[in-house]
Amino acid sequence: MKKIAVVLAGSGVYDGAEIHEATLTLLAIDRLGAQYQMFAPDIPQYHVVNHLTGEEMPESRNVLVEAARVARGKIRPLSEYNAEFFDALIFPGGFGVAKNLCSFAFDGPSMKINEQVQYAVKETHRLRKPIGALCIAPVLIAGILRNIEVTIGTDQGTAQAVESLGGKHKKTGHGEVVVDIENRIVSTPCYMLEASISQIAEGAENTVRAILELA
Amino acid sequence: MKKIAVVLAGSGVYDGAEIHEATLTLLAIDRLGAQYQMFAPDIPQYHVVNHLTGEEMPESRNVLVEAARVARGKIRPLSEYNAEFFDALIFPGGFGVAKNLCSFAFDGPSMKINEQVQYAVKETHRLRKPIGALCIAPVLIAGILRNIEVTIGTDQGTAQAVESLGGKHKKTGHGEVVVDIENRIVSTPCYMLEASISQIAEGAENTVRAILELA
C-alpha cells in the first residue's frame, strides 16, 4: 500500500491549512487505496486570524498543535519526515502555506521559505517521488524547485509570481490538474478559484490519482 | 433547492466539532444537490485542548469564532437560526457537542443543554422537519426530544445514556444510519466507531440522503 505524506500549515484558511482541502485530500488518499501520514512544522504561526471577522487576534498559536486538529492528533513534526519512507508528498493550500511555510503572502517572489519545508521538497524531488500541491501551494514548490510547470488557476498576479520564480504557469479550471511529468509535480487550483466544496473534492481526488500513477 | 442548517460546536475533535465529520457533511449536502448554511453558538468553549498532547491549554476560545475556520468565515450565530427558513438541521459530532452544546461529557444524562440549541432542535421538530445527528450528537438530540430512536454505534455506556434519557438505541456499524421516521431523526455513528475517513464520508452521505428524503 502506497504511503503519502501530507504537510499541513495549521488549521483554518486565513492563517493555516485550508480545512476542506486538507480533509478532502485525506479522503481521496483513503478512497484511492493509499495510506497517509500528516506532518507540520513545529513553529509559531505567523499570526492568528479571527475567521469570523477577518481581523488579527492578539494571541499566538503553534502550526503543529493547530494542524493536529485536522489530524485528530495523529501528526508528526515535519523535522521527522524522511522521503525514503514515503511514496509521495502533498501540500494542501490555505494562507498558512504562504504565511507559515514561506513568506509569499508578504514578500511575494522574494519570499523566505522554511528550511524543513525546503528540505522535505528537495529530498522528495531528488528521489524522483511525486509532489502534489493544491491552491496556493504550487507557488511554494516553484519557489523551491524553480523550473517546474504548475497551476494556481487563473489569478494573473500569482501566475506571474510563479513565472518570476522560474516556473511555468498553465491556466486551469475547477478540478483540473497540471502534471509536470518530468519533475513529477501535480497541481490543482482548488480555492484559488471561487469553488464549491464538491469542486475541491474533485481537485483533491484528481491530484491524488495523478500522484499515485506517478508514484 | 433544499436548504440545510449545519450546527458546529467549534473546530477540532477534542474541544469542538470533529473536522472530518463537519467537512464531509458539507460535501454530502453539496453533492446531493442541496445548500448549506452553518451556525454556531456565540459562547466560550468549555476549554481548549492541545490536539497534539491531549492536554488542556491555559487559554479561551469562542465556539462561533473557531467554527468559522471550518466555515471559511461563512457562518452565523445560532441565535439567528429560524427553522422556518430551512428544510433540515444537522449536527456533526466531536467532543464539542458534549462539552459546548451540552454538558454530557461531564454530567452524563443529567447534563445541561445550551438554550439556543434546545430551541433550534425543538422548533425544527415542531415544524416536522428532519434533524440529522452524527457521532455523539444523537445523545444531545435525545436529551432534548427524549422519546426518539437513534444510534451512537455500539458503545454500551453511551447507548445506556440514550435509554436513560428516554430514547431508544439501535446498534449500527460503519456508514449505517438509523431513521426514526415518525420523529424525522436520522443518526449515524461516524467516529463513535474506530473508523476510516472514507467510512465517515459514507456515514455523512447516507445521513444527508435520508434527511433529504424526509425533507
Provide a concise account of the structure shown.
By secondary structure, chain A is α/β, with parallel strands linked by helices. The first copy, chain A, contains 8 helices and 11 strands.
Low-confidence stretches of chain A: none
Number of helices of chain A: 8
The neighbouring-strand order within the major sheet of chain A is 5-2-1-6-7-11-10
Q: Can you tell me the CATH architecture of chain A?
A: 3-Layer(aba) Sandwich
Largest sheet of chain A: 7 strands, mixed
Oligomer state equals homodimer
How widely separated are the two ends of chain A?
A: 11 Å
Strand content of chain A: 15-25%
Order of helices and strands of chain A: EHEEEHEEHHHEHEHEEEH
CATH topology of chain A: Rossmann fold
- CATH superfamily descriptor of chain A: Class I glutamine amidotransferase (GATase) domain
Largest interface: A-B, 34 and 34 residues
Walkthrough of the structure:
The structure is a homodimer of 215-residue chains. The first copy, chain A, is an alpha/beta fold and 215 residues long. The first copy, chain A, has one domain (3-214): Rossmann fold. Helix content of chain A is 37%, strand content 17%. Chain A has eight helices and eleven strands. In chain A, the strands form three sheets. Chain A has a seven-stranded mixed β-sheet with strand order 5-2-1-6-7-11-10, sandwiched between helices. In chain A, a hairpin with a 4-residue loop joins strand 10 (178-180) and strand 11 (185-188). In chain A, helix 1 (19-31) packs across helix 8. The first copy, chain A, is globular. Chain A starts with a strand and ends with a helix. The relative contact order of chain A is 0.18. The model of chain A has no long low-confidence stretch (mean pLDDT 98).
